[in-house]
Amino acid sequence: MASVQRLSGGLFLLVMAALLGSVAWWTWSGAMRDGMNAAVSITRLGANQAARMIESADLLLIDMQRIARVVDWRSDSMATMAQSELDLLVAELSHVTRLSVFAPDGSLRASSDPAAEPSDTVRQEDFFAHHSAGSDGLYLSPLLRHRNGRTELMISRPVTGAGGVFDGIVTVAVDPSAFAAFFRSLDIRLNAVFHLVHDDSTILVREEGGGAEERAATAETSSASEARAVGVGRTDTREATGLPPDLGQRIQAIGGASGFHYEDGEGRQWLGAVQRVERYPLHMLIGVEHDAIVERWMAETLPYFAFGCLALMALTFLVAVSIRQGQREDQFRTALIRTNDELERRVLERTQSLANALEQKDVLFRELNHRVKNNLQIVASLLRLQAARFKDPAVTDGFTSCLGRIQSMSAVHEMLYRKDDVAHVDFRDYLQTLTIRLRDSYGARDRVKVTVDAEEDLLDVRTAVPLALFVNEVVSNCFKHAFPDGREGSIAVTWRIDGDRRELTVRDDGIGCGPDGGSRPGALGMQLARALAGQLGGTFSQQPASPGTITQLAFTLGAMADD
Known about the structure:
This protein is an alpha+beta fold. It has 2 domains: 28-314, Beta-Lactamase (2-Layer Sandwich); 423-556, 2-Layer Sandwich (Heat Shock Protein 90). The protein contains 14 helices and 17 strands. The strands form 4 sheets. Strands 2-1-5-4-3 form a 5-stranded antiparallel beta sheet, with helices on both faces. The termini are far apart.
């Protein structure tokens, strides 16, 4: 009986040891699979983020193309306005370092870089030669080094003049460290290496994360920094770490994010994935170190297996019950994982559907605002052509007033097109933009000071358009009539919010109006202002001040008259 018990016990322990070994293999395989899935997921996420960053920079290029086409660079005033536009655009994206416009001969026309010099030229650069040879698409250069020592990725598009003639290029300089900063922001608990690679296999950005925190901290000012600052085509041992030897072949053959095992130049094993950055000549490579996954698996798994072996040797008579309990727990866990995976799949499908619908709606709104803005600009151009045919100053002034009203509405749709929120206008920014444009259009930059004191307010288009026309009429009236014969003065515009109530005040220190508020010339504009106030469901008043005139509009959101 004792022999039978020992034999049974030995066989039982052998079976349990084999079972433990099988479980160890299963968890190890799961850890490898999770590591591979993590590499693929992070690669897709990083490629998507890189695409969005390049795409946002490309939108700036498109705006710059529009500016470069319409600016007469021989005019100092128009060149100054274009420079102001570049200064505004460069502040919209944190990863963009500077914007530049270059002439057909490669010389600098305008730049958001305050250190730029008129003698700067890109005549010898590859991207200029690429566009001057006739290419009209987007061009991404390899890494270039600026004269201040900073490396940058140059993105460029050509500018075509009348008849499709090459009229220079516009460029956006992107800071490569912005891509690495995104990778560092991810909470990756594995030893992973991030590479952003050009189509020609040139490494643009390299960053370590996760299990490499200690190594990265000690080498931050040496190896890691040097690897990010090297010139085009240069590689060294540090750069080779984490890269597959056949990187170029994988870049050419890859169609989407897919995982693979590889060995780098130092003989270290990695789990990696490569993903093309949408339609751009860039690829995202994420490598997760194989040994780090094994170490993590051992740290998390071995204590439990050791405890299981001790429990088997000490309490053999409870093993059968423990096995059955473990089997039930595994079944429950498997069913729970399957249920959770199914729920996650459904949530992802629904989220993707909603995201696609939202994206389509956003595109439609942007296209609508873009077309409305273009149509208004066409109307304004036609009015300018028609006005040029008349010599009567009264007729010309009438056309000029109409142009101002059209441009005020066009500015609303232009802001909607350029901002993320395509249904609302930041009225504070609009007031600042409109008053500056009106001051410049009336040639009063040096003699009339304009101040805007406005609270931040998002207004829907239905309210913003008549309100924009009202501001145009009142402020234009100040410029035309308050400061005759070159008189100097000031205009103050105030915008206040009190719950749903809005109050606009325009005050000038000009020659003033009559006590009835209607004796100032330009009565037609004031009639239109009163009509617009009525459309908004508000009250309009214009009174003499000491000195000048005070014009006020007060209305409540939602009280607007039906169309």
